[in-house]
Specification:
By secondary structure, the chain is α+β, with helices and mostly antiparallel strands. The chain contains two helices and three strands, in the order ββαβα. The chain has helices at residues 24-43, 65-81, and strands at 2-5, 12-15, 50-54. The chain has a three-stranded mixed beta sheet, covered by helices on one side. Strand 2, helix 1 and strand 3 (50-54) form a beta-alpha-beta unit. The protein starts with a strand and ends with a helix.
């Protein structure tokens, strides 16, 4: 994940899952799960207003929802620190 400062009123997110993550159906599933998690983080005030680029890595599709939430939270914190 990469984050950059933004002048927008809300966080903006872009997904760039590569073909190494699997076929289009699997990449779309990953994108949907991440989108749902990010929306819940934004509603809870846990997602700072920045621009985010989420790339993903092989194996992300095998994570449970809670594991994915934990990885995403850590990635957000790490991206903001940079």
């Amino acid at each position: 994940m990469v984050a950059a400062a933004s002048d927008e009123a809300r966080p903006r997110v872009a997904f760039a899952p590569g073909r190494k993550l699997g076929p289009a159906v699997e990449r779309n599933l990953i994108r949907g799960r991440l989108g749902h998690l990010l929306a819940s983080l934004e509603q809870g005030g846990e997602l700072p207003t920045m621009d985010y680029l989420i790339i993903g890595s092989p194996g992300i599709a095998t994570l449970t929802f809670e594991q994915l939430r934990a990885h995403l939270s850590r990635a957000i914190v790490a991206a903001i620190r940079r």
